[in-house]
Amino acid sequence: MTRAVFAFVGLLFTALTATAEEEIVLGLSQAEVSITTNFDGSEILVYGAVKRETPIPEGAPLEVVVTVSGPSMPIMVRRKERRFGIWVNVDAVEVDRAPSFYAVVTSGPLSEVLKRIEDLRHRISIPRAIRSVGAPMEIENPVKFTEALIRVRTASNLYQVIEDGVKVDEQTLFRAAVALPASLTEGAYDTRIFLTRGGDVVAQYETVIDVRKVGMERWLFNLAHEQAFIYGLLSLFIAVSAGWVASAVFGLLRR
Amino acid sequence: MQIYLPIAEVSVNAFLLLGLGGIVGILSGMFGVGGGFLITPLLFFVGIPPAVAVATSTNQIVASSFSALLAHLKRRTVDFRMGWVLLAGGLIGSGIGMFIFNYLKSLGQVDLLVTLCYVIFLGIIGGLMFFESLRAIRRSRKGGRVQRKKHYWVHGLPFKLRFRVSGLYISVIPPVLVGAAVGMLSAIMGVGGGFIMVPAMIYLLGMPTKVVIGTSLLQIIFVTGFTTMLHATTNQTVDIVLAVLLLVGGVLGAQVGTRIGVRMQAEQLRILLAVLVLAVCGKLALDLLLEPAELYSLSPVTAE
Question: I need a surface site. Which of A11, A60, A90, B89 has the fewest CB within 10 A?
């Protein structure tokens, strides 16, 4: 249902932007991120230009907001409290959808380049990108749980807000670097670019960065999920033979 | 050198993992403990998701225990008959343990109960061993012979079997019960159970320390092997890359550890193990007692 509304809003926007005078032409340094064994994070360069038939509009300067969002999943946030002298989990809130990775890169302070109403409409800032509805009745302050989620993920660099991260030249060319951390989950990373003037979104562009495991990583992951029994036996076989080899080698060394 | 783990989906330093495996391997060879009670918390600390850490450490324990067992086999310090009896009890126990674990899970708070289990058992066992070993060392200093083979009440039970390697002629009931208790706890706590098994064999069954270690390893291999298969087939949380890194360190460490263990006196060995157990217990107790820096924690929502 919400998806349909989303799609509708999206359609509406393409319709609007089609008649708008500014359009985004985009390039990515890589449209695919391959997770190999020695994967150590990746930096993606998002660059582009503003295509327009008319002269640069006067008034507020052009600003750019780039968001990159990993696959969304529900997540449980638990809170600890002291009970009988020890710290235990006392309550929990399930956040319905939280992206596993989320970066907002802007050409200026977010509050200045984007109006609140536009943020709500496009779900751009981190709190807007997370959806939390039905918190249990007995939870006093469900907002604190969402705040904690953002705090924990920001600390591990999974949620980033980089203001002034987009360089805009002559109101026409722009580029931004998004650093993907080493601990990435697989999936389609939705990448959105918004052009704003005076806080209003004037143009929007969406694309997808594919993040997937390749080579041995892919093979092992598939084996573990599709042939779990064989995978288990393989782990045990490796364990036992490693134990035997070490013992044999040490036996030889002692002789 | 950073390495990306396919199942854990995190990137960690390969040498750090090799080192962790090595340390735990040394302990496993020295004391006959699988080291699960050490490696699992250590893996949490380096940022491996708990489910993967628990499942993968069982696989690592299989490797280091097997390596250590081979070393013990050469020295003929494994009581096979006792091992099989313990194992029979262990499999029954782990079945019961799984049942209890799932029941606790349905109540929530399973993390807390696991931690409490750790604190209580490590505390009791570490404390008992520490004081007993101190007393034994003091007695041997005075010149008296260390006397351990006493006549316990357990020796009066029926179904007696001769355990030649251990030099025992006792009923099979106590070993089966010990095995069952250990199997149960290891299913709940996600460890091999050596740190419970070793003292139980020494103090309850009256087995000689040197035989205890090899025999405990035998039982651990089967219990952890069984658990690895269970985790791999039901949760897909065994990370083979992580396991390989840990076990390369682990098997080498186990060989070194076994050699250190042989050179040391039984009482010293036990007091060291006691100190180690108490240290882990203290750390876990502090985690419960001190206010955590972050009161909130995240965990994936599992489809029930």
Answer: A11
